[in-house]
Amino acid sequence: MLKKSYLFSTLLIAMLILAACGNTGDNNDPDVENETGTAPNEEVEKHEDTEKQDEDVSDELENDEKAAENDENVEDSVENEKPQSNDFLTIAEQVDSDAQDFSMYILPEYTLTSEEPGRDSLYLTEDGQIFMRIETLPADEETYTYLKENTITTLEATSSGSTPTELTDENFLPQGAHIENAVGYTVTTAEGIVTGIVFERNDLLVRLTIFDTQEGLYFSDFLKMGETVVKK
Predict the structure, then answer these.
(1) In the chain, where does DSSP find H-type helix?
(2) Which end of the chain is more exposed for a tag (fewer CB within 10 A), N or C?
(3) pLDDT (tens digit, 0 to 9) for every residue of the chain, 232 residues total?
(4) Neighbouring C-beta atoms of residue 223, cutoff 10 Å
(5) Of 223, 185, 178, 216, whose CA–CA distance to 84 is shortest?
């Protein structure tokens, strides 16, 4: 009888131990939620989302910094360009024509001389083949039309019949106070680029004929000086 009781007690203890081991295995199941009530997989996903958001914010800040740097570079470029026109006036000298009723500003590297009544020549001092012819007449519609048509004809003859190209970019035409109706045409010859420009300023009609190199190295100088032509 005692043996049976002992065996029964032993069997009961063994069953309790097995039951306890089963509960421990359930607690180690990876699908069981942690103490916070959040599954481990959900915590990993949230962590990855947070890292991605941090990366996006970092990229946005970097792009904003680059955009700001680009804006500063553009502003610096514009500021560097502004003084050029002012510099021109500070180093140029105002000169009166001996043969015509106008004055203009001339850069130190150039010389103004009178060819004949109604024509002046502004040439590069070190190379007389680089020059700009200046003609002025009283302003009226008929004379303006004549000068414009005659300029095209003259350029065609200079280039052995090539058709002149009209200048449509305003950066290649005279600009300034009271300058109106500016037109220009250009051709390329064996000697270089020839450009004819006609414009009105107050009561004066002005025609500029520029004889430049093949590379157009002096056009900008001649244009700046030409747009300062005013009646005396």
Answers:
(1) 2-27, 40-81, 83-91, 141-158, 219-226
(2) N
(3) 544 455 555 555 656 665 555 554 444 444 444 444 454 555 545 555 555 555 655 565 565 555 445 444 434 433 333 334 457 878 999 999 999 999 999 999 999 999 888 899 999 999 999 999 999 999 999 999 999 999 999 999 999 889 999 999 999 999 999 999 999 999 999 999 999 999 999 999 999 999 999 999 999 999 999 999 999 9
(4) 20
(5) 223
Q: Name the residue among 153, 156, 154, 151 with its Cα closest to residue 137.
A: 151
Q: How many CB atoms lie within 10 A of CB 165?
A: 13
Burial of 188 (0-12, 13-18, 19+ CB in 10 A): middle
Encoding tokens for residue 63? Answer: 């792009």
How do 230-231 and 179-188 pair as beta strands? unpaired
- Tokens read off for 107: 């850069």
Distances (CA, A) of 160 to 81, 102, 153, 196, 201: 39, 32, 11, 16, 32
